[in-house]
Specification:
The protein has about 160 residues and is of the alpha/beta class. It contains 6 helices and 4 strands. Helix 6 links the parallel strand 3 and strand 4.
Length: about 160
C-alpha cells in the first residue's frame, strides 16, 4: 500500500474529469503492474467501471488501434449534442476532436454530416447511443457502415 500511496500528484492540467488527488495512471494497464506487485498476484487488470472511465477508454483504444495498424489518424468526430467530457476524453487520449458534427432538428446525426467531416485524419466517431433521453439514434447503422467502409472506428458511449 505504501507504494500505491506514494504516487505523486499530477500537475497535468489536461487531466480528465475529476482525477483522484493522489495521482493517476498515465496509460491503460499501467496501474495493473503496481497493483499486482502490491497484492502479490501474478496479474491484475483494471476494467473501467462506467461513466468517465469507460468514455476515456474509447480514445485510448482508438489510439492503440491506429498505432498497431501503422496509421497516423489523430482526430475523432464529436457531435454537437455531446457533453463536455467527450472532447476532454479525446484530449486525454492524445487525440483531437473534429467537428462538431451538426445534428438535425431532432438531435440526430445523419450519414451525410459524417461524410462531410470524414477526412484523412479522422480515426473514429464518438457518439452517445442511446442518448441521455434513452433514445437509440436513428440512422446509426448507416453511419456505422459509412465509417467501416472507410476503415474508421465507431465508438458508442451509452448514456443510460
Amino acid at each position: 500500500m505504501k507504494k500505491l500511496a506514494s504516487i505523486p500528484a499530477s500537475r497535468d492540467s489536461s487531466m480528465h474529469a475529476s482525477p483522484p488527488r493522489a495521482g493517476r495512471a498515465r496509460d491503460p494497464g499501467q496501474d495493473g503492474t503496481a497493483l499486482a506487485e502490491i497484492t502479490g498476484w501474478t496479474r491484475f487488470r483494471s476494467i473501467p467501471a462506467a461513466g468517465a472511465q469507460g468514455e476515456l477508454t474509447g480514445p485510448w483504444m482508438v489510439r492503440v488501434w491506429e498505432k498497431k495498424r501503422g496509421g497516423a489518424r489523430h482526430k475523432v468526430i464529436i457531435p454537437d449534442t455531446a457533453h463536455g467530457t467527450n472532447p476532454a476524453s479525446c484530449h486525454a487520449g492524445r487525440l483531437r476532436g473534429r467537428g462538431p458534427a451538426r445534428s438535425h432538428q431532432r438531435g440526430y446525426l445523419e450519414a451525410n454530416e459524417i461524410r462531410r467531416l470524414l477526412d484523412g485524419d479522422v480515426a473514429a466517431l464518438m457518439v452517445t447511443n442511446p442518448n441521455t433521453d434513452g433514445d437509440f439514434r436513428a440512422g446509426i447503422q448507416e453511419i456505422a457502415a459509412l465509417l467501416h467502409e472507410h476503415r474508421r472506428l465507431l465508438y458508442l458511449d451509452g448514456a443510460t
